[in-house]
Amino acid sequence: MSTGVPEDEAILETARTDPGAVDLETIVALFDAEQGQVRNVALRCVRFVAIDDPGRVAAISEHVVERLDDEFAVAGSTAAAVLARIAPDHPDAVRPAVPALVGKLDEHPPQTGYRAARALSPLLEDDPAAFVPEADALFDVLVDPPEVWAPESGELQDLPRKKRESITNLLASRRDEIATDEARARAIREFAAHALVEVTALDPDAIADRLEELPPVLAREPPLARAATVDVIATVARAEPAAAAPTTDAVIDRLEDDVDVVRTHAVRALGFAEATDAVDPLRALAEDADGELRELAADTADWLDEAS
Length: 308
What we know:
This is HEAT repeat domain-containing protein. This protein is mainly α. The protein has helices spanning 8-17, 24-29, 36-52, 54-58, 61-66, 73-86, 91-94, 98-104, 111-126, 135-143, 153-156, 161-173, 175-202, 223-239, 248-253, 260-272, 279-288, 291-307.
């Protein structure tokens, strides 16, 4: 079968308007085309089919998984987008791709990592054990996630006027794209943190020797990632309190977080870590907080005080 350059617009229009008419055997044959753009067009067609009928694409998922490592980066990103479409209904079809998808979480720009996180999320819920072997890779994403570069105004002041104006105009034209990428990067951080909560619940030792790397992460946005990261510490500390010792000062700082769910997780983590240095900060929180958080902080302070 020929793998020459297809009529891009025609083949995409068919997939877009009548995905049921797409011959997947013919499209999959294009996955082996020499030109990266051809492979990407084929994957885009498959994505439209997946939107219409995920089951059809699940049946040929192994071919999509192979394209995650395509040397044409755009094609690899599109493959992740295809898998994100079929994962909710057909997690078994995507499960073999877990290592490759985790490996894409920190790619720049973050669009590919966001697509990978969307593909992985249903698998995390369906089979968290599949992520235990990826603990270190997930941890790497959490401590060094993809960042979106957008300079502060002060960073441009020392540049020559023409260059400063050029960068300013470029940033203005990309304002919406930058905002989208920032949202994607936050979602990737949230996914990595939540995945590690599940991993440490199954295997607390998986990243126990790396907790000393977490303190800088505890102050980062978004709040749900902070809360989940603290929960990782709590889960490890529940099995081995001493392992959390390098993080306790940073966790104590989270008692003053402006989000209650972060403070609640911090209280639990300090209790599991048997952090007796946290008694006074916990009592201060109990005086300032309301409802269940107040009670949890007071009870944890009393327990740690008795244990000291």
